Amino acid sequence: MSTNKLKNPTLIKFCYIAIGGALGILGALLPWMYAIIPLLCIGIAVYYVDIKKIVEILFWVVVVAMFLGAYLSVPGHESIYLFRLLLPIHVFLLLITQDFDIENLKKYRAYFILLLLYFVASILSLCWAGSVTLGIRYSYFIFEICYLFVICFYHLNSEKQFMRLFQLITIFFSLNLVVGIIETILGWHLPLSGSNVYITTTSQFQPTGFLFNTNDYALLLAILYPVAANYLLEFKRKNLGLILYIVVTVMTIYVVVSTYSRIGMLAIGISILTIFFFQFKEKGIIICLLQAPIFLTIAVFSSFGKNLTDIIYSSFTGKGTSTSARGHLYELLIQIIQDSHFIGIGAGNVPRQLNTLLIGYAEDSSEAYVTGHNFWLETIGNIGVIGFIFCIGIFTLYIIQLLYMKSSGKWHLPLLIWISFMGASIALSTILEKRFLWFMIAFGICYIKYHSKKEIRNE
Fold first, then answer.
1. Which first-to-last residue range defines the signal peptide (predicted)?
2. Phi, psi of 406 (to 5 degrees)
């Protein structure tokens, strides 16, 4: 709001000083009056400052805070981090801005309905939840997911915004990649890395980047790679972009393989091949045939290649115990679903029930928590089939709208994001708390909508 609207700026300033002085005097008598001073400052800021501009800046700060997570937190209190502090502020400013663009959000009406119903289903399930505390925690994460979708729908509405996000994702992806390379080669990890906590025969050189878990890190790289690779391939300086694309791709393969994550390897493999052949088309086949002898030589005769080959082989053949354990968890999840008559046992209560079934008795400690490693079965177990339908509806609608992108040259990006998310949903211990996965799905939806609209305009 412009200060030109004020009839007498001098008088207004005098009033502010008078009010501040009065509050100071009253505060000496009634200390609680001092609490009005920061509220007054906020009111003045809201009156003078362009709220829309602040909301715009906050969006990018929120995105950075989301990716860095606990590394932007209160020291010693990793659960209190910048993302959670900015969330209520951003929501409040978004609601009070006078230029709130409702028209732009109407095209996402179906997603809003599904998200709202998904959230409501989790809230209603608290009525029969064994632990309401766990249910509130579960519902809060769904609220965060809804928030991420809303801010993406609101802000990602132009080519300029998409390019900024492409740049930001590429920078963050590259930083994560560099950290992963250092971890893999030197065995050094960031302070909040799980490799400092879980000591196994391979953990010392398993990368985690800015995350805690190595599997999470592999899927983070897999879901961000399509965006980063596409950005590098579209550099104005084509040769530089191509060189960076090759370097980043080789580094990504090395780091993801070093995580020992099977789904991570499959997801990144699909992404690399899809982007490569999409970019080079028929030339890609010729390039592969010409380069195949070189790759085979490196894989068979070099220590570097043999090491990667051994890791891949052991990852897919040496995890029989892990695979059977997950199979048993799936059986228990199905049992929980059936015992609840498909209405769920209450939001967030499946992990505790899983622990009870595994050890044979109920335990109330915070450690009595076992995740099912299958988001879809856990969703049915938590909030029932109806809640699951609302959740899966979001991803079904995503694919349906992707099919309607027609001849867009960018269809593969949202598809690869969707594939990586689906892989993560059955690979990671839980994905409800993995904000970067949900943010990328929201980004994919916006990307589909924007390019579909662009095609209609071109026609």
1. none
2. 60, -120
